[in-house]
Structure formats: C-alpha cells, structure tokens
Amino acid sequence: MIPFSILDLSPIGQGKSISESFSLSLAMAQRAETHGYQRYWLAEHHGMSGVGSSSPAVLLSHIGAGTSTIRLGAGGIMLPNHAPLVVAEQFGTLAELYPNRIDLGLGRAPGTDMLTARALRRNMQASVDDYPQDVQELERLLGDGPFDKGIVAVPGRHTNVPLWLLGSSLYSAQVAAEFGLPYSFASHFAPDQLMQALTVYRRHFKAKKEGDKPYTMAGIMAVLADTQEEANYLFTSAQQQFVNLRRGGNRAFPAPVESMDTIWSPSESHMVSHALQFAVVGTKASVAHQLSSFIEKTEIDELIISFPIYDGEKRLASLGLMAELRHEMANYVA
Questions:
Q1: How far apart are alpha carbons 231 and 238 in whole angstroms?
Q2: Which residues form the Luciferase-like domain (predicted)?
Q3: What is the 3-class SS of 85-142, one letter each residue?
Q4: Which helix (H) or strand (E) covers residue 77, if one does?
C-alpha cells in the first residue's frame, strides 16, 4: 500500500482561538507519527479568518520540536510571495534543526486575495512570471554547487532540502517534469485537471540523474467516523467553508450543522459537490472502495489527506480510522 500523508491548514474554528489551532496541529502531527503517516505538511494561506498556517516555517519548527520521526514540510510555500533566499534560509534552518525530515513543496498561486498578495510582495505579476527561475534559484541555494553571484544561504547551503512542485493545472505539471521534481496535485479542492496533469508530468519527466523516476502525490479530503450519519454531519463544516469562500466571506472554520438545505442554493450545492468530488466521507467500510478506486485510477505514489473537521477529538479520531483503513487495505492487497 502506498504511503499516506497529511495536509493541514491549522483551521481556526468558530469560537476557538488561534493558539488552540496550533495545539491541535501539534497533536495531529504527533498522532500521525504514531500511526505511521509518511509526512505532515502545512499550507501557506494569508488573510483568512479560518486558516492559521500563514507562516508554515515557524509553525513547523514548533511541530518539529514535538515530534521525532515523521517528515515535515510545506504543502506548500507560495513562492511568488517570497524571495527565494528567504525561503532557503527558513527551510535550511528547519533542516539543521530536524535533519533528514524536512520537505519543501512550492506553489505558484499567492494563497490569498490580490490585495494581500501585493502587500506580501510588491511586483506580483513579475513574481509569478519568474516562478521557474525562482524554483531553480532556490534549488541552487539549498544545494552544493558554486555560489550564484556570491549569494549564499546560511543556513540552507548543503542541506539539499527535497523540493516538490504543487499545483492544480497543467502548467505546474510541465514545470515539475522539466525540472525532474516530485509533483503533488491539489485534487482535494481542484479536481478537474487531475488525470491530465499526471499524464503530462509522467510523459515529459526529465530525470536529473540515472535512476530518477516520476513521483506523484494527489490530495483528498477525508471525514471518517463510526457511522455514516456522523461523518455526513461533520463534513458540513467543509461544505459551509466552500460556500463562504464562494460568497466572498472571510469567516472562521464553521461548526457542523444538521442540514445544509437552508444554507446553500442549488447552484452552490452543485459547485461544492463538484469541487469536493474526491472527498471520502463515511465509515471505514463505506469509503474503502472509493479510496482504493482513486489510488488505482490515478496510479499515484503517495496520497495526502486533509481532515476538515471542526471538533479536535473527532479530527484525531478520523486520522486514526484512516490509518486503520490503510492497514486493512494493505493486508487485503498482500
């Protein structure tokens, strides 16, 4: 069975504090380590009332101190927001603190609205257009080669932090293939080009050295519970969040509700169902076929999972149920 990993946004729940969100993220990583998950990644977002992971490097340092073996990383750092040297120094620092445990996933989107994006970096369009060059510069800064015009990342140089490219389009797949880097597709919220992107990436992959092969990851949302009814109830938090985003709302991650009927319109229901079409919601037994079909269809090398659940204990329980399901599926395959 392929490895399972976790993507976390450190959700800030309605009526809860940011510090509570950070504590729960640490508990998630610790539980994931116990259950044998491969990686724990944080995604960079800015200016969102329901998302606490605006500074992944800082939060990863906190989580690294409370774990010992699980790989930690960004899924991802939105590179147009930052100078590559700053990112190299941040993740070089993490790599020195937690050797052989740090990954660096890179995205091209700003992870926020355009006004906030401009506040993060002055020339946004130039930054986006420079994305491939920035990826290469970051790789040089973290590597062992000669200085680039005398610029050196300290910490950073010689750490060779593994880079991943993330995306939800064919463009990111093409760049990842050209640079011979592992590739992760954001199918947990942008499913439309998943199969095309994976095909483009695999077909055009250029190995950096002998033996290198394409390596793919794809994302899903998961809400597992002891009953289907409870899972459906817990999943309404994610459904509400997507409705809020479509309406331009900026709210904390919502508590679940008994019914979405009075909250969304028919068009909003269709939009959410389409965006979250790969979400697995139910019991271990009810989602097993859906999960195995997704893995078989995509032929991915690794699955990354987000657990959009308001209640902390329910989120931890869902993480555990997914780990149990993976073990059962592995035994079945064997």
A1: 12
A2: 4-295
A3: HHHHHHHHHHHHHCCCCEEEEEECCCCCCHHHHHHHCCCHHHHHHCHHHHHHHHHHHH
A4: strand 71-78
Cα atoms found within 13 Å of the Cα of residue 96, Cβ hemisphere only: 12
> Which pTM was predicted?
0.94
Q: Which residues of the chain have pLDDT under 50?
A: 334
- Phi, psi of 71, rounded to the nearest 5 degrees: -70, 145
Which is it for strands 302-306 and 216-224: parallel, antiparallel or unpaired? parallel
Closest residue by Cα to residue 79 from 103, 111, 54: 111
Fill in the DSSP letter of residue 81: G
| Cα gap 253→236, rounded to integer Å | 11
DSSP string, 41-56: EE----S-TTB--S-H
DSSP 258-309: S-STTT--HHHHHHHHHHTTT-EEE-HHHHHHHHHHHHHHHT-SEEEEE---
Those residues whose C-beta lies under 8 Å from the C-beta of residue 328, and which sit 6 or more positions away, are: 284, 288
By C-alpha distance, which of 92, 89, 130, 88 is closest to 108?
Answer: 130
CB 28 within 8 Å of CB 305:
no
Distance between CA 174 and CA 180 in Å, rounded? 10
For 118-134, the pLDDT digits (tens) are: 777 656 555 667 899 99
| CATH architecture for residues 4-333 | Alpha-Beta Barrel (3.20)
- Do 121 and 101 touch, CB atoms closer than 8 A? no
CA distances from 273 to 174, 191, 202 (A): 28, 11, 28
Q: Would you state the pLDDT for residue 81?
A: 87
